[in-house]
Amino acid sequence: MGKVVMYGSVSVDGFVADENDQPGPLFDWLSGGDVPLDDSGVVKVSQQSYDYLRPYWDEIAVTIAGRHVFDITDGWDGKPPSGVGHVVVVTHRPPPEGWNPEAPFHFADGIEAAVAKAQELAGDRVVEVAAGDVGGQVLAAGLVDEVRMDVVPVVFGSGKRYFGPVDAQHLLEDPDVVIRGNRVLHLRYRVRGGTGGEG
Predict the structure, then answer these.
(1) How many domains does the chain have?
(2) Where would a tag sit more exposed on the chain, N or C end, judged by fewer CB atoms within 10 A?
(3) H or E stretch covering 119
(4) Distance CA 29, CA 186 (A)
């Protein structure tokens, strides 16, 4: 079984967006370099960021996101982001009216069901969990193996928290990756007591 990774860009004070779901400068680093990260030609990062991110992106088979993110992105128009094969949406509501049932999106009622479905789809590849409320719930349930953060030098003061509703202490190992890019610091931590996925 592949590992479950909680991932997102984050302000130095721990927010993934402001109160209005706006990421502000959190993604500026994705256009602040000269090395294309994907085929779009829009995402260009430093060589250091590319060398760290490209192999990771290639490992991701499934992304888990909450219904709120799904709704504000209009379901990515039925095409999973960043070339990911499938998206599992945690929701208590049915898919939107007119949603294409052939789109590689799966709707799960709860985080345990979402992680189980994502791991079934991913096989031995990575399941990525979006940071925020759903990511925090998956971490609190002990289902996250690794936390990856792209820390951006901005202070939000308030907004949507990286770890969402987590209100208990969770220990991470010392960071085993610390990479400085342009306007971003990439960090990777293993979670003590995670699900034990290989990696």
Answers:
(1) 1
(2) C
(3) helix 111-122
(4) 11
* Inter-CA distances, 57 with 22, 67, 123, Å: 23, 22, 16
Contact 80, 118 (CB under 8 A): no
CA–CA distance, 6 with 144 (Å, rounded to integer): 7
For residue 83, the model assigns a pLDDT of 80
Reduced to 3 states (helix: H, G, I; strand: E, B; else coil), residue 160 is strand
Half-sphere exposure (CA, 13 Å, Cβ side) for 102?
0
- On whether residue 198 sits in a domain, the answer given is no
39, 40, 130 from 77: Cα distances, Å: 18, 16, 18
3-state SS, 19-44, equals CCCCCHHHHHHHHCCCEECCCCCCCE
CB 91 within 8 A of CB 70: yes
> For residue 130, what are the β-bridge partners?
7
Between strands 35-36 and 86-90, the pairing is unpaired
- Which one-letter amino acid corresponds to residue 93? R
Q: What range defines the domain where residue 59 resides?
A: 4-190
pLDDT for 195 equals 54
Question: CB–CB of 64/88 below 8 Å?
Answer: yes
What is the pLDDT averaged over residues 86-108?
95
CATH code of the domain in which 66 resides: 3.40.430.10
18 close to 156: Cβ distance less than 8 angstroms: yes
Q: Residue 12, SS3?
A: coil
Cα torsion at 181, 183, 189, 191 (round to 10°)? Answer: -150
Mean pLDDT computed over 152-161: 97
